[in-house]
Predict the 3D structure of the following.
Amino acid sequence: MVAADWQFLRTNMTYKDINIIYEDNHLLVVVKPQNIPSQEDSSGDKDMLTLLKEYLVESKNKPGNAFLGLVHRLDRPTGGVMVFAKTSKAAARLTESIQNGSFEKKYLAVVLGEIKQKQGRLDNYLMKYPKLNVVKVVPAATSGAKHAVLDYKVLEVNNNNSLVNVNLYTGRSHQIRVQFEFAGYPLIGDVKYGGERSNKGCKLALWASELRFPHPTTGEILVFRVYPPVEDYPWNTFDIERHLSVAIRN
């Protein structure tokens, strides 16, 4: 087996372990634990989509296989806020919001090193190599390469580590991890992309902290902001509450 992209697998998780922060007839907004797949993968471990379908079947007394639309994904080792669609109409409109840019995703990350440019943009072309399960920055002219763009803002520096807010414009596989590693600042805990100098046993320091999007039926702008595990390293070395108690705008 190749080196795992995650640590501390939780194979006995049930939907009762998932924090549901908002639900109506159209949406289900939850906090994805780290190291749980967004959808079924080759590991056979429980995934978010399956667990939340079980929640709908059992809690709503729905017979058979309940509908639940996966409209965006988080990498397995990444935790944080996710929204799922409870109807096909909601799924289509959320997908449209993603395509037209009205669906905003923000992340918090802790990277190794002090980023000199405190605010900026990372703009690269990425290529995924499925057999190796890695993504690499490649020249723009490379056949099959996908454009990847994010903005970042350094919020705090502590012990030569930088806490950054990331505004993601394209949802490429492993995008944040690969782009920061290419820039010379790998994420703490990211053994796949150069973060092995961090504390042993440390989970990936990447967290989906905020979603902002129009409700699929009412058009109301919804904002959901969730904290990373502030008691764990490296989050406990920063004043996370100060940074998340107010909206962070890049």
